[in-house]
Records
---
Amino acid sequence: QVQFVESGGGLVQPGGSLRLSCAASEFPFSSYSMAWYRQAPGKERESVATIDRTGGTTHYADSVKGRFTIARDNAKKTLYLQMNSLKAEDTAIYYCNTPWPGSFGFPSWGQGTQVTVAS
C-alpha cells in the first residue's frame, strides 16, 4: 500500500526554523493537491497547509499564516513545509497527505515526523 514518508522534524527552540519533507515515490504525486497536517497531544489532527497540484495555489490555517510555507517539487515527488518563527504550540506530529486521506483509494496516514518546540 502506498504511504507517504515524512522527515525533517526535531527539537527546536522557540523562534527557530525547521523544514519538513514528504516523499511520495509510489504515488502519482503531480496529479493531486497535497496537504500538511499536524496532531498535538490530546488534540485532533488538523490541516495546516494545502497546495494545488501545480503549486500555484496555497492555503494556510490562520495559526500558521505568515510563518509556514508549503511547496512542492513534482519532479522529485516531494512536498515541503518550511516552518519559521516556531512557537511551543506548534509542537505536534506532522503528516503529509492528500486532502482526502484514506478515502476514494487515496493513501492513509504515514508515520509522521515529530516537531518539538521548547527551550
---
Amino acid sequence: QVQVVESGGGLVQAGGSLRLSCTVSGLRFGDYSMGWFRQAPGKEREGVSCTASNGVNTYYADSVKGRFTISRDNAKNTLYLQMNSLKPQDTAMYYCTQVRRALDCSGPINYWGQGTQVTVSS
C-alpha cells in the first residue's frame, strides 16, 4: 500500500519562502516520476511542478517558474519543493503524488496524501 506524507507548509508573508517535503512508502520511489499539485478553495487541483525519476527532466507551471524548484532524494524516498518569493495566489493545499509523465505533469496517480497547507499573507 502506497502512503504519501506531505509536510512543510505554513503561514508566511508575501515574498517569503517555504520548503515542502513529501515522503513516500510502499512504492519504488526512484523508478517513477513524481509531482506537486495544489488546490485552492473553489478551484480545481492543478499541477505545480513535476520531475522525472532521474530528477533531470522537470516541469513547472508558468505561474511558479523562476520561483519554485523541485528536487528529489531517491535514497530517502522524498520529494521536495522549494518555494521562494511566495505570493498570496500561491495559497492552497499542496499535495504530491506519482505522475505518468513529468514533462507536462500529466496522469497523476491517485496516491494523494493529506496535503500540507500553504497560506501566504499580503
---
Amino acid sequence: VQLQESGPGLVKPSQTLSLTCPVSGGSITTNYYLWTWIRQPPGKGLEWMGAMTYSGSTYYSPSLRSRTSISRDTSKNQFTLQLSSVTPEDTAVYYCAGASNWLTYDYWGQGTQVTVSS
C-alpha cells in the first residue's frame, strides 16, 4: 500500500489548507482501517490531527476539531484534509497514514512541507 500527500506548499494566513492523499495498492474501505492525518511542526514532535475510518466515521484532535475536516472520495480511493483559518503556527510537515488500529500505523506517505506565510 502506498500513500502520497499532495497539495500546495505555501498557504496564506487565514486561508484553508487542503491536502489530498491518494491510496494505491489497497482500498480505503478495507475493514477496520483508519486513514489518518499527522503533522510535525519544525522542532516539535508528531501531532495527531484526525482520522476517518473505513466506514467513513471521523475523529478529530480536540485542539483542532473546530478547524479540521477529513473527507474521502471512494471512487478515487483518496482522502482529504482541510484545515481552515491557518496561522504560521500551522507550518509543518504533514503526513497521511493508514493504521490497522489506533496504535499501529502500517503505511505512511513521505510527508509534504506546508508553510503558512504571507
